[in-house]
Specification:
Helices cover 27% and strands 25% of the residues. The chain is of the alpha+beta class. The chain has a single domain, classed as Roll (Ubiquitin-like (UB roll)), CATH 3.10.20.30.
Length: 95
């Protein structure tokens, strides 16, 4: 297992209330389950204060543009190495 830093940007950051997390994971695909656990914990704490809050949709690889150490990565089973920095960006949209 590698300890990596994950930074979320755009809508992903707003929806999850996560900006930067350090996690231990073996593969890139594992980080989404770990982040979803953190989001669930945050939601449970916040909904006590505001029952009208909507639970965010679970994060998945298809919902993010992924960079590892500044380079785009599309292989969700990529093995992670300690100290890597992963950026999760919202897919572009607009009009």
């Amino acid at each position: 297992m590698a300890e990596v830093t994950i930074k979320l940007f755009g809508v992903l950051r707003v929806d999850t209330h996560l900006a930067c997390e350090t996690v231990r994971a073996e593969r890139l695909s594992d980080i989404f389950a770990l982040l979803n656990e953190k989001v669930d914990t945050i939601y449970e704490q916040n909904v006590k204060n505001d029952p009208s809050l909507k639970h965010p949709d679970p994060l998945s690889f298809k919902d993010a543009i992924v960079y590892i150490n500044g380079e785009r990565c599309s292989k969700k089973n990529r093995r992670l190495e300690g100290g890597e920095e992963i950026w999760l960006l919202s897919p572009a949209s607009g009009g």
